Amino acid sequence: MEERPAASSGSTPDLTHVLEALRTAAGDGLVAVDVAAGTLRVEVGRAGLHAVACVLRDHPDCLLTYPADLCATDTGDAIVLWYRLWSMARRITAIITVNLPRETPEVVTLTDVWPGLDWHERETFDLFGVHFVGHPRVQDPARMRILLPEDWVGHPFRKDYEPVFSDDPLHGPQETN
């Protein structure tokens, strides 16, 4: 692991205790862990996501309090989520990846861990159709939309998306050429 000065302690924290805490919290839900150059990479099953998030936020060697972003991709076989987290106190980053089945892209919300993920989760729902169980707006799918109109059909970043063309440029894609 590359040694870089941390904001408060003078060196990058030893993440050995964090790895042990992750294994304890996630159990069989922990798929893989890697540490390189101040970045902790964690692949977790959807059942272990919330426990891993809490460890990364609360463990004194991590203190990953800033959720920088949430990205997704449709591989054709699965929907893959990436959460990128940052610790200002420890000057480390973590990337959590979760593979979701395309048929049931559902995972627990992390808005109770990092409230700043609210809009990120809504965008991921809007574009990929990932359902975030327990999200504050999940009871009303129209309110989960953040980029597209409430009556939009489908999730346009999925590989199986088939656009429904419209004559109204504000409601649906337009045919070109």
Describe what this molecule looks like in 3D.
- Helices cover 20% and strands 27% of the residues.
- Strand 6 (106-108), helix 3 and strand 7 form a beta-alpha-beta unit.
- Mean pLDDT is 87; it is low at 1-10.
- It has helices at 16-26, 49-58, 118-128, 141-144; strands spanning 30-36, 39-44, 66-74, 78-87, 92-101, 106-108, 131-133.
Strands, helices and their partners?
Elements: H1 16-26, E1 30-36, E2 39-44, H2 49-58, E3 66-74, E4 78-87, E5 92-101, E6 106-108, H3 118-128, E7 131-133, H4 141-144
Parallel strand pairs: 2-5, 6-7
Antiparallel strand pairs: 1-2, 3-4, 4-5
Fill in the keyword field for this structure.
alpha/beta, 177 residues, 4 helices
- The helix/strand series, from N terminus to C terminus, equals HEEHEEEEHEH
- Helix percentage range: 10-25%
Spans of 5+ residues with little confidence (pLDDT < 50)? Answer: 1-10
Tell me the Rg in angstroms.
Answer: 18 Å
Number of helices: 4
Q: What amount of the residues lies in strands?
A: 25-35%
Give the beta-strand count.
Answer: 7
- Please tell me the overall pLDDT: 87
Morphology call = elongated
Strand order of the largest sheet: 1-2-5-4-3
Largest sheet: 5 strands, mixed
Distance between the termini: 53 Å
The quaternary structure here is single chain
Structural class: alpha/beta
In short:
The chain has 177 residues and is α/β, with parallel strands linked by helices. 20% of the residues lie in helices and 27% in strands.
